[in-house]
Amino acid sequence: MIAIKHFIKTNGWMVVVIVASFIFAFRFVDPAPPKSFTLVTGSEDGRYHHVAQRLKAELARDGLEVRLVPSAGSIANLSLLTAEDNEIGAGFVQSGVENLFDGETETLRGIGSLYYEPVWLYYHRDRRIRTVGDLEGKHVAVGEPGSGTKAVAQLLLETSHLVRSDGTGSVVVSELGGEEAVDALETGGIDAAFFILSAESPIIKRLAANPDLDFVDVRRAAAYEGNYPFLSSCRIPEGLLDLAANVPDSDRTVIAPLATLVVNERFH
Question: pTM of the full predicted structure?
Answer without folding.
Answer: 0.79
